[in-house]
Amino acid sequence: MILDDKLLDEVTARTKTSERLRMNFNLHDSLDAKAQRLLNALEPGTVLPVHRHPHTDETYVILRGRFDVIFCDEHGRQTQRFALDPLKGVYGIHVPKGQWHTLEVLESGTVLFEVKDGPYAPLAPEDMVR
Questions:
Q1: How far, in Å, are 10, 13, 14, 101 from residue 59 at the CA level?
Q2: Which residue from 123, 117, 124 is spatially nearest to 33, judged by alpha carbons?
C-alpha cells in the first residue's frame, strides 16, 4: 500500500463528513495486532478528551497540516504544549505511557501517522479527565 496524497485526500474527505471530525485509517490487520499503526485524519473542532494510555507509549508523525499536542496533569491542566508543523521542521512527538495528553487541530486536512502497542484497548473511565 502506498501512502500518498490520494489516500490522504480520501481519508480527509470522510473526516469532513464525520460527526467526530476525525477518522482513522488502520494499517494493522486487526485490533489484536501487537502494533497499532494508523493514519489519523483530524479537522479543527474535533474534541479529543484529555487522556492517557497506561500500558503503551504513543508516537505521532505529522504528514500534513498542523496540530498541537498538549501534555496535562491528572486534573486536565496544561503543563506543556508542542506545535507540530512540517513547514517549521517539527514532524512528530513521542508520548510516554501514562502521560495525560490531548490534541488541538489547527488546520483543515491535518493527517498524522500514529503508532502504539497493541492489542487495541478502549480508554477506561479512569484514563480520561472529565
A1: 23, 24, 23, 12
A2: 117
Lookup: cell for 106: 489547527
- pLDDT tens readout for residues 74-107: 999 999 999 999 999 999 999 999 999 999 999 9
* 9 φ/ψ angles, rounded to the nearest 5 degrees: -65, -40
Please compute Rg for the chain using Cα positions. 14
- Taking the C-alpha atoms of residue 67 and residue 62, their distance in angstroms, rounded to an integer, is 8
Find the helix or strand (DSSP H, E) in which 123 lies.
none
State yes or no: pLDDT of 127 exceeds 90: yes
Q: What is the pTM of this model?
A: 0.93
